[in-house]
Amino acid sequence: MVFNNHVNPMRRLFLFALLVAACAPSSFAGTVDLRQAVVVVRQGPLANAEKAAAVVLIEEIEKRSGIRLMKSTSWPQGKTVIAITSEPARGVARAEGYRVYVEEPRGAGPIVWVIGADPRGTLFGAGYLLRKLDWAKGKLSLDALDIATAPAYPIRGHQLGYRTQANSYDAWDAAQYEQYIRELAFFGVNSIENIPFHDDRKTPVMKVPRREMNRAISEICDRYGLDYWVWVPADFDLADQALRRQMLDRYEELFRDCRELTGIFFPGGDPGRNPPELVLPFLEDVAKRMRPLHPNARIWISLQWFTAPQIDFVYKYIERENPEWFAGLVAGPSGPPIPETRLRLPKQYKLRLYPDITHNKICQYQVPGWDQAFALTLGREAINPRPAEFASIHNRLAPYSDGFISYSDGVHDDVNKTIWSALSWDPSFSVREILIDYARVYLDPGVAEVAADGILALEKNWRGPLIDNGAVDATLLFWKRLERTAPQLEKQWRWQMCLLRANYDAYIRRRLINETRLESEANAILETAGRLSAGKAMTEAMGVMNRAVNQPVSSELRARIVALCEKLFHSIGLQTSMDKYYASGEERGAVLDFVDYPLNNRWWLEDEFKKIGELGSEKEKIRRLNAIATWEHPGPGSFYDNVGNASKSPHVVRAETESSEPVLERRPEPTFWWWDEGKSRARLSWQATLWPRAVVYEGLDPVASYVVRSSGYGQALLRLNGERVEPIVDGREMGEFKEFAVPPRYIKDRKLVLTWDRPNESDLNWRKRSRLSEVWLLKKEQTQASQ
Question: Beta partners for 642?
Answer without folding.
Answer: 774
